Automatic annotation (TrEMBL):
GO biological process: homophilic cell adhesion via plasma membrane adhesion molecules; synapse assembly
Domain Fibronectin type-III: 1-98, 100-193, 194-293
Taxon lineage: Eukaryota, Metazoa, Ecdysozoa, Arthropoda, Chelicerata
Protein name: Down syndrome cell adhesion molecule-like protein Dscam2
Annotated source species: Trichonephila clavata (Joro spider)
InterPro entries the UniProt entry points to: DSCAM/DSCAML_C, FN3_dom, FN3_sf, Ig-like_fold, Striated_Muscle_Regulatory
Signal among keywords: yes
């Protein structure tokens, strides 16, 4: 027996036969018995008889009807008019797979502010040889990204993620025939939340011609505040004045200047982090030169 190879997708082997040397044949070779069985079993060999070709020393034949993606032991015995000779040395072959693999079952096991721990289980009914797993993931507003994973792996930590952000994930598995259908998608959020606005008494400190905003009184929600944006207007006007530059952190205070004394204003402050943004809208009155009090009301809402 010269060689064995898988062919097509019909669960077959192509067998290339070559007769033994003349000094060990003890007569004219009439044909061959090809024996095969599933490897690692004690089952007897099933033999197929093949007549020797009169046209060529080397000839080929096929073993068909085998199980998909299964390892087989194969032996050959030559025979002549006196009977069959000894078995050849065993050769092992593996039939081809039937289809791309079944998708694994994906699960998120734990989270941090910047990572997700995931694990997956291969379908126990799927006997194909997986060559690669691919993890697909995205945020609510992002594009799908991919991470190629080893076929031997069953868990992975997805790192460098945004704090306090929801992610959607699914997996695919690939083998020699292609990539299987996607798994069921799962969703998980990294730890952390959008910023939390402070009480007006802690945040607003008006003067007669300015107001000091105590930015350090905002709580991060577990995700660092990156910057603030500020708008303000007279309470009885509709047009906002926007501070042109965003206020990068760290920064404790910001002063809005050039206000008129003893006048009501509205200031809207937006805190931005990876987890989202929170807007706080405050109404206040600048002080009269002789005034020492303050009247303030406050409204706050979050957007994630």
């Amino acid at each position: 027996m010269k060689c064995i190879e898988s062919i097509d997708y019909k669960f077959s082997f192509a067998i290339s036969l070559q007769p033994p040397p003349d000094d060990v044949t003890n007569g004219v070779i009439k044909g061959y018995y090809i024996g095969y069985r599933i490897s690692s079993t004690s089952e007897p060999y099933t033999f197929k008889q093949v007549e020797k070709s009169a046209e060529s020393q080397q000839q080929a034949t096929y073993i068909t009807g085998l199980q998909p993606f299964t390892k087989y032991d194969i032996v050959v015995k030559a025979f002549n008019s006196a009977g069959a000779g000894p078995k050849s040395t065993k050769t092992v072959g593996v039939t081809l797979e039937t289809a791309p693999p079944t998708s694994p079952v994906l699960q998120v096991t734990s989270t941090t502010k910047s990572s997700l721990d995931i694990k997956w289980e291969k379908d126990p009914k799927d006997k194909s040889a997986i060559t690669e797993y691919t993890l697909h993931y995205k945020t609510d507003d992002g594009n799908w990204l991919q991470e190629g994973l080893s076929s031997d792996a069953d868990k992975f930590t997805l790192r460098n993620l945004r704090c306090g952000t929801r992610y959607h994930l699914y997996m695919t598995a690939s083998n020699s025939l292609g990539t299987g259908e996607p798994s069921e998608a799962v969703s998980a959020r990294t730890r952390g939340a959008a910023p939390m606005s402070p009480q007006e008494s802690a945040f607003i400190q008006p003067n007669s011609t300015s107001v000091t905003l105590n930015l350090g009184t905002w709580q991060s929600g577990g995700c660092p505040i990156r910057h603030f944006t500020v708008q303000y207007r007279s309470k009885y006007q509709n047009q906002w004045t926007t501070i042109p530059d965003k206020l990068d952190m760290p920064r404790d205070t910001f002063v809005v200047r050039h206000l008129s004394p003893d006048r009501e204003y509205v200031v809207m402050v937006t805190a931005h982090s990876e987890a989202g943004l929170t807007q706080g809208e405050y109404s206040f009155r600048t002080l009269h030169a002789s005034q020492a009090g303050i009247v303030a009301t406050f409204l706050s809402f979050s957007v994630e």
